[in-house]
UniProtKB/TrEMBL annotation:
Record-listed E.C. numbers: 2.5.1.87
UniProt main location, coarse: endoplasmic reticulum
Reported cofactor(s): Mg(2+)
Keywords: Endoplasmic reticulum, Magnesium, Membrane, Receptor, Transferase, Transmembrane, Transmembrane helix
PANTHER family named among the record's database cross-references: DEHYDRODOLICHYL DIPHOSPHATE SYNTHASE COMPLEX SUBUNIT NUS1
Entry GO MF terms: ditrans,polycis-polyprenyl diphosphate synthase [(2E,6E)-farnesyl diphosphate specific] activity
Any one GO CC term of the record: endoplasmic reticulum membrane
InterPro entries the record matches: Nus1/NgBR, UPP_synth-like_sf
The keyword DNA-binding is assigned to this record: no
Compartments it resides in: Endoplasmic reticulum membrane
Name of protein: ditrans,polycis-polyprenyl diphosphate synthase [(2E,6E)-farnesyldiphosphate specific]
Amino acid sequence: MIDVYIKRTILYFAHFVLFLYLKLISIIPNFEWFPVSKKLRIPRHLALTFTDESNRLDLNSITDLICWCKQLGVKYITLYDDLGRLKAKQKELYRFLDYKASLIDDSTSNENEPTMMQLKHISYIKGLTILSRLDGRQKFVTDIKDLLKVEPAKIDLDLVQKHVGWTCDPELLIIFGFQQCLHGFPPWQLRLTEILSIPSHRNVTYRMFIDCLEKYSRTTQRLGA
C-alpha cells in the first residue's frame, strides 16, 4: 500500500514539474540565437499577416515575432488580421509584449545604465501598427473625403500619407497561413513589397523566421527603366 502511495506521489510530482516546464517555455521568448549572416538584409518596414483558418491566435508566437524584429533592427512592424482579432486583443498583446521585452532587457542590460534599459524596453511597442479589414479600402476613401473637406487646395502625397497614417511601404510582407492571398490587406502599400509565406504562425521558430529573411535578402527587384 505504501509503495502504491509513493509511486502515485512521484507520478503527481512528475506531472507538476512537466506542467511548470511547459508553462515556462510558453512565457519566455523563443530565442535560438545563432550567428546571423552580415549579408542579411533587414527590412525597414515589415508587415505580418495572419490568415490561418483557425480563429485562435497564438499571442505567444506573435510577441516572439515582434521581439525578433526589434532585436534585428526592424523599425516599423505592421500586424494584419482581417477578422480584427488582434485589435480586439490589443491590450492583452501589449501586456504580453511588455512582459517579454522586460525579460529580454533584464538579461541583456547593464545595471549601471537603467536609462538605456528603459529606452530598449519602450522600443518594442514603438513603431508597431495593428490593422484589420476595416483599415482597408473603405477607410482610405473615408480619409480622403475628410481630407478634401479640411484642406482641398493643399493636397499632395505627403499630406495624404500624414492623414492616412502610413509611414512607409513595407519592404517585406510575410503571410502566415496556407492560403496565399492578402485577405484585404491595403494593396496600395504593396507596390514594391516582396511577399513570402510561412504555413502557420503557431510554434514558429527563430530559424524559420531567419530563413524567411535570408530568402528575402537573396531577391533582386527589377523596377524597369
